[in-house]
């Protein structure tokens, strides 16, 4: 009996001792937790120097980025055709012609007479210099739809491209080869072939004028209206690609017929032009500066004088 009682007291004493140890451990852990919490709060209230420096750099980068964006926006605005009174946005001309060809009143009809002189199929070393000399003398600008193969023919033709740009004229893309059989096999619009030719011509122009050169203006050999009638589905597919790439195709609503039928003398070209331009508020005029078009150069001064007397202003298309 005495032995059992002694064993019971020993066990009770051991349990009390264990409880005291557990309480002591709990107190120590609580105190340690409080100290850690206080240390963290103090640290958060005073950022370390590296953190402050990083914040400053981030803020600086953010401000610089904003300045770059603002500057880029200003440059884009300055380069926009809308801010140059002598330049017409190609998208405007494209829409104007499309609506006019559908028999609708164009959205851009505002009573102001504007003439857009355009020359296709060049450059040529025989006719293009004459055209440029006349335009310079008349103080008029024009848009040249360039064939890449002709532009890259030799040093003289490459220099003509440079002169066109230097004298303030605009350049459009008239494909690289102007080869109907490749562009429109079996009299059908081949989107892949046309886009290959457009991009190839772009590369030629960049090689001459520098990598920063670009043009949004496209004119199809034979004209968009012609191939839209012959192959509406094919042209619709091509139009979709052009839209995605921000290209704008432009045809014409005035012509001298210097590339239709038999060769014509300057007086016949002028008469045809006057019949064609009658009633046109926005006159997109088609002529050619390729080889054999010397009569076009002869007719050009009278065409320009007529337009001036009729109250037209002159713009290029970009």
TrEMBL record:
One of its GO terms (molecular function) is hydrolase activity, acting on carbon-nitrogen (but not peptide) bonds. The keyword Hydrolase applies. GO terms for biological process: carbohydrate metabolic process. Residues 113-315 form the NodB homology domain. The chain crosses the membrane at residues 21-40. Residues 48-87 are annotated as: Disordered. Its EC number is 3.5.1.-. It is an enzyme of class 3 (hydrolase). The keyword Nucleotide-binding does not apply. Residues 54-67 have a biased composition (Basic and acidic residues). InterPro entries: Glyco_hydro/deAcase_b/a-brl, NODB_dom, Polysacc_deacetylase_ArnD. Keywords: Hydrolase, Membrane, Transmembrane, Transmembrane helix. This is Chitooligosaccharide deacetylase.
């Amino acid at each position: 009996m005495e032995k059992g009682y002694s064993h019971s007291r020993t066990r009770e004493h051991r349990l009390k001792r264990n409880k005291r140890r557990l309480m002591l451990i709990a107190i120590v852990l609580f105190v340690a937790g409080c100290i850690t919490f206080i240390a963290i709060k103090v640290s958060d209230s005073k950022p370390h120097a590296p953190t402050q420096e990083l914040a400053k750099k981030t803020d600086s980068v953010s401000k610089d980025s904003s300045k770059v964006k603002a500057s880029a926006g200003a440059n884009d605005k300055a380069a926009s055709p809308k801010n140059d009174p002598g330049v017409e946005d190609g998208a405007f001309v494209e829409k104007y012609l499309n609506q006019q060809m559908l028999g609708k009143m164009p959205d851009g009809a505002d009573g102001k007479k504007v003439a857009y002189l355009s020359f296709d199929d060049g450059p040529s070393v025989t006719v293009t210099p004459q055209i440029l000399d006349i335009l310079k003398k008349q103080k008029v600008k024009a848009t040249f739809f360039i064939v890449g193969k002709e532009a890259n023919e030799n040093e003289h033709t490459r220099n003509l491209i440079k002169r066109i740009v230097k004298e303030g004229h605009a350049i459009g893309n008239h494909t690289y080869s102007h080869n109907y059989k490749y562009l429109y096999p079996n009299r059908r619009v081949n989107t892949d072939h046309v886009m290959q030719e457009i991009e190839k011509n772009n590369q030629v122009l960049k090689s001459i004028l520098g990598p920063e050169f670009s043009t949004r203006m496209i004119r199809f050999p034979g004209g968009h209206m012609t191939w839209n009638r012959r192959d509406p589905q094919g042209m619709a597919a091509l139009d979709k690609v052009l839209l995605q790439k921000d290209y704008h195709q432009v045809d014409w609503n005035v012509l001298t017929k210097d590339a239709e039928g038999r060769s014509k003398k300057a007086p016949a070209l002028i008469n045809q032009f006057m019949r064609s331009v009658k009633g046109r508020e926005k006159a997109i005029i088609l002529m050619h500066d390729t080889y054999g078009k010397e009569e076009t150069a002869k007719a050009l001064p009278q065409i320009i004088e007529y337009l001036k007397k009729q109250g037209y202003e002159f713009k290029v298309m970009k």
